[in-house]
Amino acid sequence: MVYTEQVRQLNSEANLINDTTVYTRNDAAWGTIHSYGNITLSEDSLVVFKFTVNTPSAYRLKIGSYYVYGCFVTGVKTGIAFVAAGTYAVVMEQKNSGGSGSIGYFQLGKAKFSDVKNSNLAVYASTISLTLAQRAPPSFFGTLKNAVFAVLVWASTPGGQTNFENVGDALTNGVQLSVDGVQVDWTTRIQDTTSDETACANFYGSLSVGSAHTFTIGKDNANTVVHISIIGCPWLLAGVDNQPVTLDFPQVSTLYVTLEPLDKDPTKNSKIGKVRAVSYGDATDFYSTASGTGILSHTYTFEIVAVSDVSVFVNGFGGCISLVGVDER
Question: How far apart are CA 54 and CA 94, in angstroms?
Fold first, then answer.
């Protein structure tokens, strides 16, 4: 008997904006390079966006009243944020801090996953505490163990340059993140090159399910404003290994895991096994591995290896798990 669960709920997913036009603007003051119109979310939603910066200038993306992304350099830019139900204008702003602005190929959509705990996009005011509830994801598969918590922030200091601080940094108008009372390094950070108000950063970390986790923003300058959203979900992928479930199904069954792009299409990795007392790398720690871009499927039959003795580890910053299944024997 084959049991599956579509943890990426595609029936609720939608591509809301898909505009391939390239827009330009050349002005020394902040202003709209393009308004992409309104989006309407019938429920609190995970919003995913992607666009291309063609020329170096200062840019920032605004959804409703809040900024979710800022950048200066060229290239493809992507990100996610959790946004409350409602109707929001989606606006890209620009100011000339190196040349006229040129952006295009903008996409924005909404995605939905099973097992999500979130703090909606808002101005940060105080410590945020989140607990992702425990459940047997599908009863045939096992129980949730760890989730990836994604902290997404944009920051601005009036008249000043803003910088995100890793452990040990001492930067101008620094912004720090502490998880469960301990400062952590940002996964990625885009610093202000001057006082452009484009600083943004994110943190992706694996944390336990069923326990409360606290997220605290520290600011060197009390006038620095931070816009923040937090998403906790076992089906998101980070750059570090996450063990989303404790396996529990009959021996000689076949396990299926499907990994997909979300806001990025990174190299995604799925591994079944356990790091040994002395590790010689993945080739000897894991009985089965799969790696690749695009849609990646990993299948393994537990003929000799005991289900209870090993784990599934996944990674791939910007990707997600879309489907899990077991063919029970």
Answer: 13
Closest CA to 192 of 172, 216, 222: 172
- Judge if pTM exceeds 0.85: yes
pLDDT at 195 over 90: no
- b/e code 186-214 from CB counts within 10 Å (16+ = b): bbebbbbeebbbbbbbbbbbbbebeeebe
Q: Are residues 134 and 227 in the same domain?
A: yes
Q: Which residues pair with 219 in a beta bridge?
A: 175
Whole-angstrom distance, CA of residue 264 vs CA of residue 310: 29
**Per-residue pLDDT reduced to its tens digit, 8-38:** 999 999 999 999 999 999 999 999 999 999 9
- Which run of H or E residues covers position 116? none
Single residue among 50, 81, 111 that ends a domain in this structure: 111
Report the 10 Å Cβ neighbour count for 272: 21
**For residue 12, what is the DSSP state?**
G
Is 3 inside a domain boundary?
Answer: no
The confidence band for 135, taking pLDDT boundaries of 50, 70 and 90, is confident
